[in-house]
Amino acid sequence: MNYIQSSQNSTLKEIKALHLKKNRDSQGLYFVEGIRFVNDAIDNGQVISKVIVSDKLEGLNGGSELIEKVKGVCSDISLVPEKLFKEVSDTQTPQGILAVLEKNQFDFQEVIEKGNSVVILDCLQDPGNAGTIIRTADAAGISAVLMSKGCVDLYSPKVLRSTMGSVFHVPIFEGLNITETIQLLKQKGYKVIASHLSGKNNYFQEDLTGRSAIIVGNEANGISDETANMADSLVKIPMPGKAESLNASVAASIMIYEIVRQKVM
């Protein structure tokens, strides 16, 4: 294990650079923090480029065990003083471990060919919403999450934390052209539905027992008119109360679990 004492160390500079999307994109790397998150990365076979640990980690519950576990999958491990660790951390109260991972690579055509249900995020901007939808999709056994151009960055620390590790379980594709994506899904037999103010049927009146794709729109503007026109069906979620709308992740979860209900029943 290397010992780093200077904030000018090249390893720390590399990790600090990964706080910016452009550097994550150019290097194909991102980082995760915390005992549980790093444990999940190891357990799910993620490729770990390097790890830094603070000198307080061994004193935390599970800290020593995790250090030994990390040694089995990564040779580039550095120990740093707690003060330096806080300089590269993205959390208010860091647990003292950070791992740099390689981005997962999936074959888009293969995933769509083999899949049965997908969720499309159309310019979704809120990190919490994106992460929650990914987590829900994972829990529901959704085949993939497809993120259009203009969506929040999947690998931003806030999105990653919101996924609670589900980013390791479900194929996720970023920066997609939504028009081309919907066209491809239709060619492969997916029924494309979206919640929309113009929806006539309730979401549970749609037949979702076959291949299906749910579109989740932008928090402020919903799905674009062009996207709405491409959908096979626009649906509504009944709201007999006084609220005018639902949170994007809540609406997505309701429709995702309708797919589960129909397929199970």
TrEMBL record:
RNA 2-O ribose methyltransferase substrate binding domain: residues covered: 31-107
GO molecular function, one term: RNA binding
GO biological process, one term: methylation
GO cellular component: cytoplasm
Keywords, in A-Z order: Methyltransferase, Transferase
Family affiliation: Belongs to the class IV-like SAM-binding methyltransferase superfamily. RNA methyltransferase TrmH family.
The name this protein goes by in its record: RNA methyltransferase, TrmH family, group 3
Organism: Ruminiclostridium papyrosolvens DSM 2782
